[in-house]
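User: I'm preparing a small set of examples for a lab meeting where we compare how different chains pack in three dimensions. I only have the primary sequence for this one, and I'd like the structure in token form so I can line it up with the others. Please keep the answer compact; I'll paste it straight into my notes.
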Amino acid sequence: MRDTRESRLLLVLLITTAFALITVDIRGGEDSPVDGARQAAATVFGPIENGVSGAVDPIGNAVTAVRDSGDRNDRLAELERENTALKAELGSDDRNRSRTKQLDKLLKVAGQGQYGIKGAQVIAIGAAQGFSWTITIDVGADDGIERDMTVLNGDGLVGRVTTVGPHTATVLLANDPDFTVGTRMEAGDELGFASGQGDRPLRVELLNGKAEIKKGDRLVTFGSQADKPFVPGVPVGTVSRVDPSGGDLTRTLYVTPFVGFTKLDIVGVVVQAPKKDPRDTVLPKKPKPTPTPTVTVTVTPSAPAGGQDQQEQ
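Assistant: Understood. Below is the structure token output for the 313-residue chain.
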């Protein structure tokens, strides 16, 4: 339509009519005379509006997703934190169970040997490549710990206290080359001296060069004067090799220690020695030997060759 005087008049008329209809519709309320026309328009244009809405909804959803993505990321981060905390809690439970087991074994050994002990935790371990094999424990002079006290765990002899501070102490391990302890063979009186060899078995020199010793025999500590640095009866290890007797005054044994020196955690310092030597009572029970299965072979005698010939005749 061209911009003429007639077209301008028509536009003004249409606008005036629209305002008039709006006024009548508002004043009429539910009884508006244009209600029928409005319903007809809704019938015609409703499907079109739904189509446009369906086309636009993905855009709206995307906008909502962007708006809510921060909340979801926060929730994801929270779940990850909860998962990490749960794993740590489970790991802590496993470690607590392990420590409880170690403590139970330690208390059993202390009860069997009648040792008065002070429980401790290993908080540091010296490097195996260093000059000595040592550990640091979390008890010291304030806990009644003194130099030259015996240290053990649920498996046996760990070492002896060498340095004491107010709240910590240093323990020289039994596998250190500078470590020596008097030993006694199980179920006998054969005495000797065990020395550490680092990550190799302990070396034991028996005082009796003609002693009858075999692989699998076990040793305990002999004890020291006034029970320092060693109390008697603490399990030391099992004989793994015996050098041939060459007529020397002593005999050399190699002993695998009961204690694993690279995985120490809960230990006990003997602060009160037993009233009497526990001898071999602290040693664990020997495992029962596995029976060797026997196979019985039954041979069925065959018929004599001559008898067979007679039957054929």
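A couple of notes for your slides: The longest helix spans residues 35-113. The helical segments are 5-28, 35-113, 305-312.

User: Perfect, thanks.
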